[in-house]
Recover the amino acids of this structure.
């Protein structure tokens, strides 16, 4: 395949990815100017990481060549204060609290069978749970957030983690989860591509999709129910397995540099795509 054909093919792939970003931006009320600003930051961040991975010096001249942005723009963006994505951090923290509660033997009767915990006072079981994750966290603040997200049931003396954890419902929280999933999937695919190109012998990341497009609409309700049931069962099995390997849950201290992060995500979509194929 010639270079021109490769570029045309890549352009169509990028267009699909960009259309998804634009769709989310319109849903969120983000204007083109705001999106453009964030894209510039993303180009600079990714180009910087690429140069660092090659042990190359990062400067505005090299970043300009890679990104196509002017050096003046790059210098301006690099000198700006980078804001931390506090919502993303908060969601990650809540997931860790729930995971520790579900699997640590001090706070669960068995894997996925969390105990009801006392929550009043600094010596309560819930305070102990929060301290096991970080001494910098305040138990009352975390409990407020768990209640706000409808993840716990509260009595006079104890709190119980709901058996069926409800989904984060707000638009902002849903989009944070989406962005995290997209980042994870993209990283998995790129890791597979790099391993293949560099001929590194290692087991690839799981990346699979199953699709059928001639199923009767009358089957939709049954299929949706089956997918949710089987998907939940699949993730329960994964959580139990990975929890048995997690050093925090096992009470083993280790340096971050000696640990790996494992992410497994699933999704399903049932739609009528027949009209979309006509649109160009």
């Amino acid at each position: 395949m010639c270079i021109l054909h490769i570029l045309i093919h890549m352009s169509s792939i990028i267009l699909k990815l960009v259309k998804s970003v634009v769709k989310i931006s319109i849903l969120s009320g983000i204007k083109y100017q705001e999106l453009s600003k964030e894209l510039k930051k993303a180009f600079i961040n990714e180009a910087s990481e690429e140069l660092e991975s090659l042990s190359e010096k990062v400067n505005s001249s090299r970043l300009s060549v890679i990104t196509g942005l002017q050096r003046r723009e790059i210098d301006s963006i690099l000198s700006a204060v980078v804001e931390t994505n506090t919502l993303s951090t908060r969601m990650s923290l809540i997931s860790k609290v729930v995971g520790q509660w579900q699997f640590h033997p001090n706070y669960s009767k068995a894997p996925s069978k969390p105990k009801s915990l006392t929550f009043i006072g600094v010596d309560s079981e819930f305070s102990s749970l929060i301290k096991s994750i970080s001494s910098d966290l305040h138990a009352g603040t975390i409990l407020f957030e768990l209640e706000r997200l409808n993840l716990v049931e509260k009595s006079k003396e104890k709190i119980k983690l709901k058996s069926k954890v409800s989904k984060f419902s707000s638009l902002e929280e849903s989009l944070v989860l989406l962005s995290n999933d997209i980042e994870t999937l993209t990283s998995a695919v790129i890791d597979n591509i790099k391993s293949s190109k560099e001929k590194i012998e290692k087991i690839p990341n799981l990346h699979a999709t199953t699709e059928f497009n001639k199923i009767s609409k009358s089957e939709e309700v049954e299929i949706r129910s089956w997918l949710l049931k089987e998907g939940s069962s699949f993730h329960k099995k994964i959580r139990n397995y990975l929890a048995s390997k997690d050093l925090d849950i096992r009470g083993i201290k280790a340096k971050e540099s000696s640990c790996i992060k494992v992410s497994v995500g699933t999704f399903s979509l049932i739609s009528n795509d027949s009209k979309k194929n006509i649109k160009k």
Remarks:
- The chain is about 55% helix and 5% strand.
